[in-house]
Write a structure and sequence with these properties.
The chain is mainly β. The chain is 0% helix and 50% strand. It is built from no helices and eleven strands. Strands 2, 4, 5, 6, 9, 10 and 11 form a seven-stranded mixed β-sheet that branches. The protein has a four-stranded antiparallel β-sheet with strand order 1-3-8-7, with no helix packed on it.
């Protein structure tokens, strides 16, 4: 069973930075492992629906970002370490949310989710 575990959240002042990590383990029922997953980060801000933040292709060569984080956040992955990262710079109070890592083994649906890590940005 594929599993995702996020870490790196915390409390930071506005303008600060954090780096989130998501470690993947296990396999999908079809035997796929981390290197074959499209990976993504999502967040759920207080009182709002979960929303897309960023995705990265299997090789890491293609990244996509929500307009709200473009130019401030950077997604990357290390397939040798089965880990995907989200570097967050110039954080603002509106970035306060629970951040979730997700995996799409077939690239079409987010089948696996982590438990989330809290990011709180103080003004």
């Amino acid at each position: 069973q594929a599993q995702l575990v996020e870490s790196g959240g915390g409390l930071v002042q506005a303008g600060g930075s954090l780096r989130l990590s998501c470690a993947a383990s296990g396999r999908t029922p079809s035997g796929r492992t981390f290197g074959s997953y499209t990976m993504g980060w999502f967040r759920q801000r207080p009182g709002k629906e979960r929303e897309f933040v960023s995705t990265i292709s299997r090789s890491g060569g293609t990244q996509n970002y929500a307009d709200s984080v473009k130019g401030r956040f950077t997604i990357s992955r290390d397939n040798a370490k089965n880990t995907v990262y989200l570097r967050m710079n110039s954080l603002q109070p509106d970035d306060t949310a629970v951040y979730y890592c997700a995996a799409a083994p077939l690239g079409t649906s987010w089948d696996y989710w982590g438990q989330g890590t809290q990011v709180t940005v103080s003004s």
